[in-house]
Amino acid sequence: MINKRLIEDCKEAINNNFEQIDIDLKLKKWINKTIELIDKGIVRIADKTDGGWFVNEWLKKAIILYFRSQKMKKIEFGPFEYYDKIPIKNGYSNKKVRVVPHAIARYGSYINKNVILMPSYVNIGAYVDSGSMIDTWATIGSCAQIGKNVHISGGVGIGGVLEPIQSSPVIIEDNCFIGSRCIVVEGVRVMEEAVLGAGIVLTNSTKIIDISGDKEIQYKAKIPKRSVVIPGTYKKKFKCGEYSIPCALIIGKRKKSTNKKTSLNQALRDFNVSV
Questions:
Q1: What is the DSSP code string of 174-188?
Q2: Which of 58, 183, 208, 217 has the fewest other C-beta atoms within 10 Å?
Q3: Which pLDDT tens digit goes with each residue over 111-132?
Q4: Closest CA to 143 of 119, 178, 167, 179
Q5: Residue 148's closest CA among 190, 103, 202, 112?
Q6: How far, rounded to the nearest angstrom, does the alpha carbon of residue 267 sit from its chain's CA centroid?
Q7: Which CATH architecture has domain 4-69?
Q8: CATH 2.160.10.10 for domain 88-255
Q9: What is the pLDDT of residues 13-70, one digit of tens each?
Q10: DSSP-based helix, strand, coil % in the chain, nearest 5
């Protein structure tokens, strides 16, 4: 059962003392309790509402305070040794989370049931929902939000966005497929059931162009629902000549009849594209 009074007390303590230089024992207690709430998935950095995603800025403040309050120490994990401020997450077997050596998740991240972590990295504040797979050498940045049944392929880099505090984190919604070596950063939102082809780079300034209709439609920092996306380029003139600039091309919509667990190859095959 969620203790709403505890959450409100934590929120008040964090907001009222965020600028405090010296962290006393009382404030440290509230910081630690807040990080515990994040670690257990009771609260999260961003909540989905009817009006879109709402960022809980006070939780970002708590993570920043947690970094400031923690001291560097040696962390031993089997035969491995680390020297850091943030403990390593554990207790996976109780939630039926499969963790393959050398996967690492920091304490203060939330990993829901039936998630698979191949050798990968999940940072503090991140939220990985049930049934998702974080494949080999993928990284999930601090505060990034990963939905249900998402496949994050090998070598993908999902940025977090801890600061600025008011900025939205990267959000990958339910049933998305993120192709190998994609980079998604700077608060980009990939909406439900979208498919990203291998090697796409999405930043806040990347042009996202829908070329599936009679007229192109441009988006900024958002991939619409069920979009099938491949890397592309557009021409831009500079003083010294004309050059090709990377962009993301939406070539169609994922068919409703297609299984949500479909492979990237199958989604692209529907549009006679290979990347």
A1: TT-EE-TT-EE-TT-
A2: 217
A3: 999 999 999 999 999 999 999 9
A4: 167
A5: 112
A6: 22
A7: Orthogonal Bundle (1.10)
A8: yes
A9: 999 999 988 999 999 999 999 999 999 999 999 999 988 999 999 999 999 999 999 9
A10: 20, 35, 50
